[in-house]
Amino acid sequence: MASTSTATASEPTRRDFLFIATGAAGAVGVAATLWPFISQMGPDAATIAAGAPVEFDLTPVAEGQIVKLFWRGKLIFVRHRTAEEIKEAENVDVASLRDPQADSARVKPGKAQWLIVYGNCTHLGCVPLGHEGAFHGWQCPCHGSVFDTSGRIRQGPAPTNLPVPPYQFVSDTKIQIG
Amino acid sequence: MSAPSTYVPKSAVGKWFESRLPIMGLLHSSFIVFPNPRNLNYWWTFGGILSFMLVAQIVTGVVLAMHYTPNAKLAFDSVEHIMRDVNYGWLIRYLHANGASMFFIAVYVHIFRGMYYGSYKAPREILWILGVIIFLLMMATAFMGYVLPWGQMSFWGATVITNLFSAFPVVGETIVTYLWGGYSVDNPTLNRFFSLHYLLPFMIAGVVVLHIWALHVPGSNNPAGIEKKTEKDTLPFHPYFTVKDALALVVFVMMYIWFVSYIPNFLGHADNYIEANPAVTPAHIVPEWYFLPFYAILRAIPDKLLGVLAMFGSIAVLAFLPWLDTSRVKSATYRPLYRQFFWLFVIAAVGLGWLGAKPPEGGYVLASRILTAYYFAHFLIVLPLLGLFETPRRLPGSIAEAVLGKGGSAAAVAAGAAQSPNTKG
Ligand code: HEM
Ligand code: FES
User: Rieske domain: which residues (chain A) (predicted)?
Assistant: First the structure.
């Protein structure tokens, strides 16, 4: 008996081998099965395909008006800013902002009248109301975040500015989002 | 589930069955002869009420699911179809919607009962933690159920609550995208919420079984907060507690049916009868009443991540209650100071609920901050210190003595007095 037990201790048995081989195959199998179950939670092909670029004609948007549109299921504000609103957005000490960004970095050169930003509050996603709040940009009805005429966060719980979606001017009066 | 079964089937078929699956014996020992402390008051009837409400939600829910369509384009209309076209659809939907509120009324009473009488203390810590898990699952279930009618409150509630996860650094945005199955709350979100809303109540039922199993190891706590020692301290479950539970249940169900019959929309929001519109947020978005205290805590903190952590923390802290309360005396009846702090805590919790429905401005914000601080102080400062400084009142020697007075059992008094701490807890 003594000799058998030393043999088991020093030399791996068939059972040790089966245990490790089965365990390893099982672990790989579980990991490989888990992945599709996590991945299916993500955006599906149709949702991603809906992210194709959309064109938007700016001509009907009057000065001072804010228009809402959707891209990839996300709300976007197109705001035709007045000269006064532009001035207000530019005359801000950038360093004093919570999420410091100059107005010029948020619009296209020479197109300062067009502000295009995502329309969901960066706090918890509500739609802020236009032309409201102390900074004349937006105010969020949910927890009171206040954005200026550049869509930058000025007061309240939201941590960042309303982000600018990827877009470009395809002509003087037409933009392409995406 | 713990007492050895004395059950003997009467019929031959019963004997044949019992020797193959002893389930009748299990039920008999758990709910017929199970010895309960004889002094249980009506606050102990809410466990039975909760079990009833879970079954009521499952029955009404399964029926609703036969008529409901989980698709963003059709969901709202299918709920209106239930309300107008399906025979008694309005009744079944109102039973389900108000049933959720009744379920939460009962669970809050049940939790406060546990806090008042120290039911979370040894040897019932696992029982308590299972309860906290049930509470969490209930909140997840109710939240996802509220999304299903796809009204304005459904949509914006879903948006705000799922966005809470975006507060976590680095992985936050990815988590939210995977919760939504897209870039905003939309059809994929509604579909998965329906699937989970159907599943979770059955998971709750599973945890309830564990909860009752853990309960039947030591048996129920009781208003005196001392353990049962002799048979004199107890009464069999049936008929004493079956009747008591049934009476309380009938009164509770009358209140439930009163809501359903006379004010079926009182606890809801008119905005949820407007179909979801991703371009417009209602002016006042408020969660269902049972989430308001936690919502107030979220809004009290001016930082997004800290607000979210405080909200989750306010629930998580409950799980640690057995170790935060350092007093060995269970029942507040024998803890003169704790009893006062308990009521202060109730006032703070209800106050937070009231503030959660108010707009987040001015004095409301300040009040929410003070009550949030107090909420956490109760668990993290008051309870640990109280156990060290409070002098509890003298405990009765036994449950029988607590009920029947000194004469109840001379022997039990002597035995109990030697064990019960009558100095600092
Ligand atoms: C823990 C138990 C449950 C709770 C707390 C709960 C809660 C809720 C809530 C709050 C609503 C929204 C009611 C409204 O305003 O219209 C809802 C809707 C719904 N629930 Fe449940 N539920 C539970 C169990 C179930 C089960 C087991 C099913 C079975 C499939 C179900 C199916 C539905 C359906 C189809 C709806 C949408 C119809 C409607 O809005 O009335 N529920 N649930
Ligand atoms: S979602 Fe806008 S302030 Fe909270």
Answer: 81-176
